[in-house]
Amino acid sequence: MDIRKLNNDEIPPFELLLLADPSKEIVEEYVNRGDCYVAERNQQIIGVYVLLPTRPETVELVNVAVVEEQHGRGIGKQLVMDAIKVSKTKGYKTIELGTGNSSIGQLALYQKCGFRMVSVDIDFFVRHYPEAIFENGIQCRDMIRLSQNL
Which pTM does this prediction carry? Predict the structure, then answer.
């Protein structure tokens, strides 16, 4: 598997990005402002992440997605670790991310990759998404914010 930055002339894999974030408008907005990286195997995109500069010396990992048939193979962890490596290389001092309170697997993954929970944005998904989101039998209401010093 190879991970590379998407070229400017390439169309981002929106179908894959929408697995991690159901709002096409929000995804399009941050993809246009950030850098999109893809994981490929046999010339097929199997994973994606987006890095978005937010403040001086701070970048946010705003989307991590893996094609469903490749789940459970460590690809998500490789994507997160690559995002950390790229962020360090670019001189960032902090990498942040936010995920839903119902994203149990993702919360475990991010903590295994060295992120720490720093805050909760109460009702974020209720305020910003028109339809209710459910994962693991739990309504996704709050955004759990995590951070890591690089």
Answer: 0.92
